[in-house]
Amino acid sequence: MIHDTKCEIITVGTELLLGQIVDTNSAWLSERLASAGINVYFKQTVGDNEHRLFSVFEKAQSRSNIIFVTGGLGPTDDDLTKDVAAKLFQTNLMTHSSTMDKIETFFKKRNLQMTENNRKQALGFEGGKVFKNEVGMAPGLFFEHDGTWWFFVPGVPKEMKYLMNEQIMPYLKEQGVLTEQLYNRVLSFQGIGESTLETELHGLIRQQTNPTIAPLAKDGYVTLRLTAKAKTIKEANQLLDPTEEKIMNRVGSHFIGYGPVSLEEQLKILLEEHNLTLSSCESVTGGLFSSTMVSLEGASSFFNGSIVSYSNDAKEQVVGVSKEVITQHGAVSEPCAKQMAHLTRDKLQSDLSISFTGVAGDEVVDGHSPGTVFIGISANDHAEVDYVQIKGDRQTIREEAATEGIKRLIKFIKNFIA
């Protein structure tokens, strides 16, 4: 019986090393195992090479007591996982009859000729266990070698996830391995840096055991992930609640919510905190910024409105941008962005206004290449225009420009108003 788990994940396939396929399996496995209370200590990726594969397996055997291997269970010559593992285990491979029947039936039903190498997928370890794969050909396999538990699953993500969720995790629970799980609670903070937050909580972090406290900087805010190992959610909350209370007593004034906080939510929090109203004037973004803002609950309390001035005529006749600015500098320019922001703030009677003008198409406009964007911000006492260069297609440029605008508003409020 394994109590103190030291888990390792091995992904097999030369295509992973070449970057032809992104290894999502190990990330998914890590998260799935961690949530079940299994400690993942190591990850390795190895190509389809017998010598290197054996070396990786041998190393894993020496330092881990639960090992998950994905990939290399298929019918082709470069699928070496089972052969190499059998060599390490000093056991034989034998045909699993029900899996073989399934493979043969698959080909018969489709009137297809089954090649001999397909029989390879029905091989399992003599003295091991086979987990039925209901969504693919190759089954999952288990073998215990010198006290270490080895699990083998196909590299196809759909098949791997099915076997883990429906077969292997229930098996581990039956064997008494999954007696505790990890329960997470994420606290988000704004207006305090990661280093400052860690300093404020230094004593708590240094003394952590169960639950643990992990600070992490996000895009514009900081999170603390509290993780408790417990048998039930009730028991976990009994561990997490006192820790959260201690944290709130020290840095609670910066708390903005549980879990991830989007950029637009962060902006909303700042606007409401300082009792500010916002408006926008959009050209290149075509209303994407205002659409994002009005999707927030209670937007009418802080967002006054937007002017979409896509054409030069609209900039002049609706917003009021001077003809001289358009003629001398062009619509895609710093002076134009500045006037758009200033004039819109006055027209819509807001405390702040942001403007967007740029090039999303394929052609040069006013001497500026595609992806050029000017973002203006106007307030009573401060104003600025930022130049950004964005790579991508038309939609990407528009979306990234709106996101950059939100980031700059957050920074502007913190620097000049907060």
UniProtKB/TrEMBL annotation:
Organism: Aquisalibacillus elongatus
Name of the protein described by the UniProt record: Putative competence-damage inducible protein
Transmembrane intervals: none
Superkingdom, taxonomy of origin: Bacteria
Pfam families named in the record: CinA (PF02464), CinA_KH (PF18146), MoCF_biosynth (PF00994)
Similarity comment text for this entry: Belongs to the CinA family.
MoaB/Mog domain span: 8-175
NCBIfam families with a match to the protein in the record: cinA_nterm, molyb_syn, PncC_domain, PRK00549.1
HAMAP family recorded: CinA_B (MF_00226_B)
